[in-house]
Specification:
Blueprint lengths: L26 H5 L8 E9 L7 E5 L8 E6 L12 E15 L6 E9 L5 E6 L6 E2 L8 H4 L6 E13 L4 E4 L3 E4 L15 E12 L2 E4 L7 E3 L8 E3 L2 E8 L1 H11 L9 H12 L6 E6 L8 E2 L24 E4 L8 E3 L5 E5 L18 E3 L2 E3 L2
Parallel strand pairs: 3-5, 7-8, 10-12, 16-20
Antiparallel strand pairs: 1-2, 1-4, 2-3, 4-5, 4-6, 8-9, 8-11, 9-10, 11-12, 11-13, 14-15, 15-20, 16-17, 16-18, 18-19, 21-22
């Protein structure tokens, strides 16, 4: 007899397989994507580790390692409590994975965040010391699979060289590997020139369409290397450099010392530097003026315009259509001349604060070191 459905076997109830329960929500499980996007979570005891921007802030669970920080996006229609670094907060919000296609690599990625949408979803509950930053090497942030582990985490990198400056977007580039952005602080671009050295750069690590970016929270997160005159002569806070370099190489060498080619706002400062440089070289020397961007529009390297006019007779003349950089002490102390930027010249460097100082006569080209300044023989 052919079996029917009724006598094909026992009438078992349908098999039901329970889905595995979600792990407890935490910064760690959210950043590991163990908590699905769209889930409403509530987290307590988080420390605010950045200033609050117009859109949000970073928090940490205090453990300092991978997956220990996350961005809080504040979209509440009404006022929420103002938060500050070191505040302890309770947060309720939706886990969101904001997608970006990298403008650099073309690779799609997401930024994990918790989106607060109601006034009552953010509460300050106390204060606590900040957890220390997580130390990484610049080259580690070049690899997305490593950098992703520290998205939202306050990281620090050591001993970097500034290799790119984009004033329009407020970005810096360290060792051609690490992007630095001014979301939380205003960079002083007057001293941030290619070749400048940093002892340390610290800030939360953010992911967006440009890739991974460190966001310094204040000037204290951008620690410049100490001023080092290298092979130049410290005098009056400046250095005078008697090795010939072209304009660009001279600028990078000044930056490596911790300074820049001189920006001299007044005629008195211009003449004073010319007189001081004359003590060490009888040649003209580069100062920080160029019209490379627009012919005939001479600007200091910090972007400021000229307030006085000490050009030599018949200068600037752009001889051969190729003289776009300025030298001083041309036929007189503090007298300027335009010259080919690629020509080798002596140069001077200036520095923030008290400037460069000598520590011994060995830095003074046969002269003496007196109270931090070289004096000619």
């Amino acid at each position: 007899m052919t079996p029917t459905a009724r006598d094909a076997g026992p009438d078992y109830p349908p098999l039901v397989v329970d889905a595995a329960p979600l792990p407890a929500a935490s910064v760690f499980t959210i950043q590991q994507r163990l908590i699905p996007a769209g889930t409403i979570v509530e987290l307590d005891d988080l420390v605010v580790v950045s200033p609050e921007s117009a859109r949000g802030f970073f928090v940490s669970d205090g453990t300092q390692g991978a997956y220990s920080g996350v961005w809080i996006e504040n979209l509440a229609a009404g006022p929420t409590p103002t938060v500050a670094m070191r505040d302890v907060v309770r947060v309720r919000g939706e886990v969101v994975e904001e997608a970006f296609s990298s403008t650099v690599t073309g690779v799609m990625g997401t930024r994990t965040q918790i989106v607060v949408s109601a006034e009552s979803d953010l509460e300050v509950t106390g204060r606590r010391d900040l957890p220390g930053p997580t130390a990484l090497r610049a080259e580690e942030l070049f690899f997305p699979e490593i950098a992703e582990l520290y998205e939202g985490v306050v990281v620090t990198i050591d001993a970097g060289v500034l290799t790119g400056v984009d004033r329009s977007s407020g970005e810096l580039f360290i060792d051609d590997l690490v992007r630095i952005d001014d979301l939380f602080t205003t960079f002083d671009f007057t001293w941030l020139v290619e070749g400048a050295r940093f002892d340390r750069v610290t800030g939360p690590l953010q992911f967006d369409a440009r890739g991974f970016t460190i966001l310094p929270r204040s000037d204290a997160d951008l620690v410049r290397a100490p001023i080092d005159p290298l092979d130049c002569i410290p005098t009056g806070g400046f250095t005078v450099c008697t090795t010939r370099r072209n304009f660009f190489s001279a600028g990078r060498h000044c930056a490596a010392q911790g300074g820049r080619l001189p920006v001299l706002p007044t005629m008195a400062e211009n003449v004073a530097l010319g007189e001081r440089a004359r003590e060490w070289t009888d040649r003209a020397f580069w100062i920080g003026i160029t019209d490379r961007d627009t012919e005939g529009e001479w600007l200091w390297v910090d972007g400021s315009t000229l307030a006085y006019d000490p050009w030599g007779n018949g200068e600037p003349n752009d001889a051969g259509n190729g003289e776009d950089c300025a030298q001083s002490n041309w036929r007189g102390d503090g007298v300027w001349n335009d010259a080919n930027c690629g020509s080798g010249q002596h140069y001077a460097c200036e520095f923030p604060g008290d400037g460069a100082e000598c520590t011994s006569a060995a830095q003074c080209a046969g002269g003496r070191c007196v109270r931090g300044s070289c004096v000619p023989p």
